[in-house]
Amino acid sequence: MKLKEKTIDITSKIAKGFVDFFALNLVLIFVVFTFQACTTEDTSEINVSDDSFSEVLDMTSYQLLNDIRLSTLNGLPSAKDARSNLVYLLKYEGQKLPNTDFTNSIYNLEDLIEARDMYGLQIKTASQLNNTIAKNGDTTVNTTTADEEPVSAHEMDEAEAIAMLTPLVAEARVYLETKGFTQDEIDLMIEEAGGTEYDLVLIVMVMKEIENLPQAPSDTVDGTGDTGTVSTTQENELTAEEIGTCALIAIGADILWALGGSNASSWSKAAIKKAFKTAAKKLLGPIGVAIAVVSFGLCLLTESQD
Predict the structure, then answer these.
(1) The last residue of a domain, from among 156, 180, 202
(2) In the chain, N or C: fewer CB atoms in 10 Å?
């Protein structure tokens, strides 16, 4: 219930004009991804990975916010842009295209996240929807909820998502090498989990945000206790619980639990594999991962301001 309330809260703020704040303060959204260095003996190698991944994540996030056109799952008015062959959510019936600005992209994003959480697994993945659309030549595809209520879903540009995520995948692989993985082991982990390499981005972005927290006491390594806070450039501070909650909202998976808690020094390769499998089984695909990247950042920003 808490997750649903938080998700709807983000949507409500945006629907009431809060997106103007995001548009004017875009740089703040992903400052939460500027991570501190890990305090280990091999800091030089890890610092390189930290800086590189964070920079690519920041750059990619800007592109995702501005360029990936997300559409609704909740049946609100929509229209097709003949030039891009994409369907956009409209804020009111009869709104003229093109309306592909920053505000509309975020509005679409949050509607998509809210609908996914509300309707659950009955909704097809973005990849499946795109395949169906391509075969049928339709602009929308209808699915049903458990209550047999119609839910519409629209085409999204998967090629853009893949292009933007590719640099992040490469940096995520480098980061996992600092955790003791070889590239062959990473490939095997992906294969065994039935996921894709895009899922690496999800686990790494959560791990790196958690690593920015002070180390948890031994009696709170399960991630459920008060593990302290970490300063951000926002007015307030984030906790491990809030990071875990944002991961649940963005990915639909309890990454913190799968890792064994917020104590980064206790993360074993087995725990990382378990966390990756937890994320990979959601079968998000490139577009789903792109949505999760943006959703995670927006959620952390919201939490830091509460």
Answers:
(1) 156
(2) N
